[in-house]
């Protein structure tokens, strides 16, 4: 009594060699039982050490192995098998108009389309475009500009 969550340990030994998000399997499989869903969160002791567990939701009808998404901004770091890096905080879902769909064991948004259509790393590719600026008086200026595919406005100085 008193604990809000159940600690989750890693099922495999893992070494994070870069700062990319990685998934680490646990020994826990769904469904959780009793119609419960859960938030998957990091343990504060891991966050304090610089290992970030990215939060997730485990649905009541998920039937696969629960994996933990982790991010380490300053690798490398070694995580031995059984290290408790995450925790499940169970709850009873009460979504009034929830879609009735079978989640199965897919995980990580397997029941819906990802809304990210284009992601471009402009720090490496540096897509450039030759642009002509025209003043109200008629003078023109041609400059090379870095293309930012997600910008709502453009500032030229």
TrEMBL record:
Residues 143-157 form the Peptidase A2 domain. PROSITE patterns: ASP_PROT_RETROV, ASP_PROTEASE. GO terms for biological process: proteolysis. One of its GO terms (molecular function) is aspartic-type endopeptidase activity. It comes from the Eukaryota. Keywords: Aspartyl protease, Hydrolase, Protease. PANTHER family: GAG RETROVIRAL POLYPROTEIN, RT1 CLASS I, LOCUS CE15. This is POK9 protein. It comes from Nothoprocta pentlandii. The gene is Ervk9_4.
